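> example.struct
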C-alpha cells in the first residue's frame, strides 16, 4: 500500500474544489493508497476555517491518519531547520511536516516544492500531476 502525507496547501485546494487536486487524490484513493497528515496541517487548517466549517473539516481529517509529533520527528525537524537555515524558505511547520513524512515512510503531496528542499523525502505535486522528486 502506498502512503501519502498531505500538505496543508493541498487540503486547502481540495476544500476549495480545485479539480486537479480532487482528481489526483481520488485516483490515489482508488489505488488503495493510505492518506496521512501532520498535526501542524490540522492546526493550520483550523486556524483558517470559517464559522460552521468545523464538521466538514473534521470529516476530512477522519478519513486520514495522523502522524504524531514524536521525539524522533522533533529531532529530524530540528536537523532539517539546521541544515536549511540559509538560502531556503523552510519554516518550523514545514520541517515538522517533512519529518512526519520521513518517519511515516510516506510521499509528501504538496503544491509548495520550494518549502521542502530535503533530499531524503519523496515529493509529488498534484497540480502538475507529475512526480517532482521521487528518489
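> example.seq
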Amino acid at each position: 500500500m502506498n502512503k501519502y502525507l498531505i500538505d496543508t496547501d493541498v487540503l486547502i485546494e481540495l476544500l476549495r474544489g480545485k479539480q486537479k487536486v480532487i482528481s489526483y487524490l481520488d485516483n490515489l484513493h482508488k489505488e488503495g493508497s493510505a492518506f496521512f497528515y501532520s498535526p501542524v496541517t490540522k492546526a493550520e487548517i483550523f486556524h483558517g476555517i470559517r464559522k460552521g466549517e468545523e464538521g466538514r473539516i473534521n470529516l476530512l481529517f477522519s478519513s486520514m491518519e495522523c502522524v504524531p509529533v514524536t521525539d524522533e520527528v522533533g529531532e529530524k525537524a530540528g536537523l532539517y531547520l539546521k541544515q536549511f537555515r540559509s538560502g531556503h524558505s523552510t519554516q518550523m511547520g514545514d520541517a515538522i511536516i517533512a519529518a512526519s513524512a520521513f518517519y511515516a515512510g510516506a510521499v509528501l503531496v504538496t503544491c509548495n516544492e520550494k518549502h521542502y528542499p530535503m533530499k531524503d523525502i519523496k515529493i509529488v505535486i498534484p497540480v502538475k500531476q507529475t512526480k517532482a522528486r521521487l528518489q
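> remarks
The longest strand covers residues 3-6.
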